[in-house]
Amino acid sequence: MKVALLNHGCAKNLVDSELMLGLLAQKGYEVTLDDSEADIVVINTCSFIHDAEKESVQSILQVAQSGKKVIVTGCLPQKHKDELKQAIPEIAGMVGTSDIKEIVSVVEQVASGKSNVKKISDNPQYIYPESIERQQITMGPSSYIKIADGCNYHCGYCIIPQLRGEYHSRTIENILEEARGLIEKGVSEIVLIAQDTTSYGIDLYGENSLARLLNELNKLEGEFWIRIMYAYPSQMNDELIDAIANLDKVVKYIDLPLQHFDKEILKAMRRPAFDYDELIAKIRGKIPNVAIRTAFIVGYPGESDEQFEQLYEFVKRTRFEKMGVFEYSREKNTTSYSMQEQVPAKVKRQRRKKLMALQQKISKSVNESYIGMTLKCLVEGFTDDGLVILRSEHDAPEIDGLVYATSENPVVPGDFENVCIDRSDEYDLFGHIV
Fold first, then answer.
1. How much is the pTM?
2. Are residues 223 and 317 in the same domain?
3. Is residue 15 assigned to a domain?
């Protein structure tokens, strides 16, 4: 029997999808990413914000209308375990965020004709299933390693702790074993992910252990990059900053979602409210040539024009190399849902637009500073007209810009090449391989 899998949401979800595919393949199922070929379709869903939820629901409806048997996994059934089946009766099975090991059992029951199979823990606690070999569905030279899941923070806008449970780290030994296997398969970049990578190890080793993990990964044989995503500002301690600065395989790139700058808004968000100017100055002082990516939320309940301007001025003077801006999304079961002074949608839109227009100018200027420089880049593939597609250490896969280059000699995806940058636009660089 053929089983298809459709994945929605973040890289952490992608890893869960690959684990489920690994389990199904282990049990002899033929797995595919083309739902038209399959009898049963597993849809791994995202429920972080309303738009992501909407996209997942549309996908479920589309597959259900085609007459396939649908199993819904991940955040959506975890969040709406009682209402989802009522809303979409065609759903044959559901699996919660911390129950992915049950996917084989659910597929077997659905295949035998059952139509209301539910494996959803009331109190999710995600423990990584170490015995499963992931069946990778991503193409390209990069691979994600989930070093932890769950979250111990309770930010005012976020539902993740309710969907994923408390923070659980994997052991250093297990992560090293997975990384070694990926490098042997030819992976050229390992991207470490968790809800918050900087809390890594606190539950296992009694202290933040990301710097220790980076040191161990850096000792592995081979030429590859190590990239860290989703750092929490108050956990960016000196030991971690020094590890990023001094370890040769760790890229000089920090993904640091700050969410806001105004201290009152940060307190309302239940986020760390301290001097971010000082933190950024320290990072840039200790890590020459670092690229910092951040993300902000505009239109949080109670955000005044003055508080937005504070954020705007912070972005203007800080000149982040990479930045994303999100309009506040009102989610049930979060503390911000019932807050007074909800900001009108039109105002949220205007604020996002204004901040992104500023960032576009900053990004253009940052990219112009690369002209004339030679950058070590990772080969991703080729355009239809023969240009080489690459990525520098300052660009994370799938979210940042690319480098497009000409080459007089054949190049191979997954290899590293030196590119001399000739020109740039707001988000991408253009050059030639030297």
1. 0.93
2. yes
3. yes
